[in-house]
Design goal:
The complex is a heterodimer of chains A (about 280) and B (about 290). With about 280 residues, chain A is mainly α. Chain A is built from 13 helices and no strands. The radius of gyration of chain B is 24 Å and the shape is globular. Chain B is about 70% helix and about 0% strand. Chain B has a two-stranded antiparallel ribbon. Chain B is mainly alpha-helical. Chain B contains 13 helices and two strands; from the N terminus they run αββαααααααααααα. Classes of the chains: A mainly alpha (about 280), B mainly alpha (about 290). Chains A and B meet through α1, α2, α4, α5 and α6 of A and α1, α3, α4, α5 and α7 of B.
C-alpha cells in the first residue's frame, strides 16, 4: 500500500498542475461556443448548452480577425524566412570562406547584439522607423523582425556550419561548384535541421510579438493578431463569447504547430535561451 | 582551385545585407540612444544638449522608482517562489515513468503563446464580476476582489499570470538536465538506502546546480525585460501600481513625447541589467561553480 501511494502522489500533484494550465483554455473554448454573457457568467466551466458556432463566423469576418490573422501570418513568415536566409548566408561566409581575420571581427561584432536586452532599443528603433518614413506600413515590422533575429541566428547557424566536414566542400569545389553553388546546393541542405530550428524560434517570436507592432502600426487593417486582439478586447469588452472566440483564433495555429513539432519547438526554444 | 572560397565579391554579398540590417537596428540605435539620452528632445524640435539632466531627473523621479521596485518584485517572485517550485515540479516529473511526455508538453505549452493573448485570457479570468476567480470566491462566500483594479492585488495578479506562462519553460530546461544525469549515481544511493527525498536533495540538486544557476540568470533577465504583460493587462495602472521600467520608458516616449528622457531611461535599464548580471555572477554563480565538484 505505501508503495502504491508513493507512486500516486506525484501524479496527483502533477495532474493538478496540468489542470491549472488547461482550465483557462477549457473556459475559453467553452465560452466561445456559448450564446451570451449570461451563459458564460452563470457557469464559466460549464459545457455550453448548445454549440453556438456563430461567434466564429462573426469574429472572423465582422470583427476582422481574418485580417489580423493574415497580417500576422505573412509578416511572421516573410521576416523569419528572410532572417534565416540572410543569417545562413552570413554564417556560411564567416565560417567556410577564407577570410579568417575579417570573419572573426564581424562575428564578435554581431555577438554584441546578444548582450543588449530586448526592448532597450525600442525608443530609438521607433525613431529610426519614423525617420525612414515607414511607420504604419508592414515594413515597420518586417525590417526590425528580420534584423532582430540576426545575431542569434548567425550564432546558432555558424555553430552548425562549422561542423560540416571540409572534405565535402573540397570535393564539391573540385567538381566545379562555385562558392554560391556550394552554399545553395550542399551547405543549405546539410544544415536544414538547424535552419528549421532557427526558423521556428523566429517565427514564434514574430507571431507573438506585441511591443513593436502595437506602437509602429496604427491603421487597424495593418495590425497583427497580438495587437489586433487587444483592440478587439477593448471594443467588445462586454461580449465574452466573442472575445474568447478571438483568443481561440489566435492560439489555435500555434497549438496545431506545437502538436506536430513539439519536440523540435521545445529543443529549439530551450537551446535558444541557453545558447550553448 | 580554392579561389572561389576567396572571392571577396561573394563574401561581401553574403555578409553585407545582414550586417547592414544588424548595424542599423542594433548598433546605430544603441548609439542614438546614448546620444539622445543626454538631450532634451521631443522628436519635433532639434534636440538640446542637457548633459546629465535626464539622469538626474530619473533619480529624482519617484514614478520611475516605483517601476524599478516593481521589476524588483518580479525578480524576487521568480527567484524565491518560482525557482523552488520549478525545481520541485521538475524533480517530480523526472521521477515518474508514466505520462512524463504529457506533463512535459503541457507545462511547456503556455510559453509558446503570445504574452498579449495570455494577458487578455487572464484578464478574463480576473474579471471583477464574471471571472473564474471571483466565481470561486463567491462559492466560498468571500467578497469579490478587484484583481487588476486594486492597487493591493494588481501586481500579484500579474506576477501569477507571468509565472503561469513561464514556469513550464524552466521546468523543461531543468528536467532535461536531470534526465541526462548518469543513472548509476542515484541507483547506488538507493541501494545504500537513501530515500527519494535524500537522493533529490543530496545528489540530484547539487549535480544540476549549474543549470539552476542558468535558470536564475534567465529569470532575472526575463524580469528586467518584462513589458508586454503589463501593457496589455493594466497599462501600468491602477495609479502606476504595476508600472515596470520598460513600460514606463515606453510611455514616456510614445505617450508624452519625452524622447530624450525615454532614451536616458533605456540606458539606465541597460545599465541596471548589466549590473545585476555582474552582481549575480560575482556573488552566487561563482560559488555554485565551486560546489560543482
Amino acid at each position: 500500500m505505501p508503495a502504491a501511494i508513493r507512486k500516486t502522489v506525484p501524479h496527483v500533484i502533477l495532474l493538478a498542475y496540468v489542470a491549472v494550465i488547461l482550465i483557462p483554455f477549457v473556459i475559453v473554448v467553452f465560452s466561445s461556443l456559448k450564446e451570451s454573457n449570461a451563459e458564460v457568467a452563470a457557469h464559466p466551466l460549464g459545457f455550453p448548452k448548445e454549440l453556438f458556432f456563430d461567434n466564429y463566423v462573426k469574429a472572423w469576418k465582422q470583427a476582422k480577425i481574418n485580417v489580423y490573422f493574415f497580417n500576422s501570418l505573412y509578416i511572421s513568415l516573410s521576416a523569419s524566412v528572410a532572417g534565416v536566409l540572410l543569417a545562413a548566408a552570413t554564417a556560411f561566409a564567416l565560417t567556410r570562406m577564407k577570410f579568417a581575420r575579417t570573419s572573426k571581427w564581424i562575428y564578435q561584432f554581431v555577438l554584441i547584439g546578444m548582450l543588449i536586452p530586448g526592448n532597450v532599443l525600442f525608443i530609438s528603433q521607433y525613431i529610426l522607423i519614423k525617420d525612414l518614413h515607414l511607420l504604419d506600413s508592414p515594413w515597420a515590422l518586417l525590417l526590425p523582425y528580420t534584423a532582430g533575429a540576426i545575431p542569434f541566428s548567425v550564432l546558432l547557424i555558424s555553430a552548425f556550419m562549422r561542423s560540416v566536414p571540409a572534405e565535402l566542400e573540397e570535393a564539391a569545389i573540385v567538381d566545379g561548384l562555385s562558392s554560391p553553388g556550394l552554399f545553395f546546393r550542399i551547405i543549405l541542405p546539410l544544415t536544414l535541421p538547424a535552419l528549421v530550428t532557427v526558423f521556428i524560434i523566429n517565427y514564434l517570436g514574430n507571431w507573438n510579438e506585441y511591443l513593436l507592432s502595437n506602437f509602429f502600426i496604427s491603421t487597424d487593417r495593418l495590425k497583427t493578431l497580438p495587437t489586433g486582439m487587444v483592440g478587439f478586447r477593448d471594443a467588445y469588452q462586454t461580449n465574452y463569447p466573442l472575445i474568447c472566440t478571438g483568443i481561440v483564433f489566435s492560439v489555435l495555429p500555434v497549438l496545431v504547430l506545437y502538436a506536430f513539432l513539439q519536440q523540435k519547438i521545445i529543443e529549439g526554444l530551450t537551446a535558444g535561451s541557453v545558447k550553448g | 582551385m580554392k579561389n572561389t572560397m576567396k572571392n571577396p565579391a561573394v563574401y561581401w554579398a553574403f555578409v553585407l545585407p545582414s550586417l547592414a540590417l544588424y548595424f542599423l537596428f542594433f548598433i546605430y540605435t544603441l548609439l542614438t540612444s546614448v546620444g539622445y539620452g543626454f538631450t532634451d528632445w521631443n522628436a519635433l524640435e532639434p534636440a538640446r544638449y542637457t548633459g546629465l539632466a535626464n539622469f538626474r531627473q530619473a533619480f529624482a523621479d519617484s514614478d520611475f522608482w516605483v517601476a524599478v521596485k516593481n521589476n524588483l518584485y518580479f525578480i524576487l517572485f521568480s527567484v524565491f517562489l518560482q525557482v523552488p517550485l520549478i525545481l520541485f515540479f521538475s524533480l517530480l516529473i523526472s521521477g515518474v515513468k508514466r505520462l512524463q511526455g504529457l506533463y512535459k508538453t503541457t507545462v511547456f505549452m503556455p510559453s509558446i503563446l503570445s504574452t498579449s493573448i495570455i494577458g487578455i485570457l487572464w484578464g478574463f479570468l480576473y474579471h471583477p464580476n464574471d471571472g473564474l476567480f471571483n466565481k470561486v470566491l463567491e462559492l466560498f462566500g468571500a467578497e469579490p476582489i478587484m484583481w487588476l483594479g486594486d492597487t493591493k492585488w494588481a501586481m500579484v495578479s500579474i506576477l501569477i499570470t507571468n509565472a503561469w506562462q513561464w514556469m513550464g519553460f524552466y521546468i523543461v530546461l531543468i528536467l532535461a538536465a536531470i534526465i541526462s544525469l548518469p543513472k548509476e549515481i542515484n541507483e547506488a544511493a538507493a541501494i545504500d538506502g537513501a530515500s527519494g527525498f535524500q537522493r533529490a536533495a543530496r545528489i540530484t540538486v547539487p549535480l544540476i546546480m549549474p543549470i539552476i544557476s542558468v535558470v536564475i540568470m534567465l529569470s532575472i533577465a526575463g524580469a528586467m525585460r518584462v513589458v508586454d504583460i503589463v501593457l496589455v493587462m493594466t497599462n501600468g495602472g491602477p495609479a502606476g501600481a504595476t508600472e515596470v521600467m520598460a513600460s514606463y520608458m515606453v510611455n514616456q516616449g510614445t505617450r508624452y513625447g519625452e524622447y530624450g528622457y525615454a532614451m536616458a531611461l533605456s540606458i539606465l535599464i541597460f545599465a541596471i541589467a548589466l549590473l545585476l548580471t555582474a552582481l549575480y555572477q560575482i556573488t552566487f554563480a561563482r560559488k555554485i561553480e565551486r560546489i560543482d565538484y
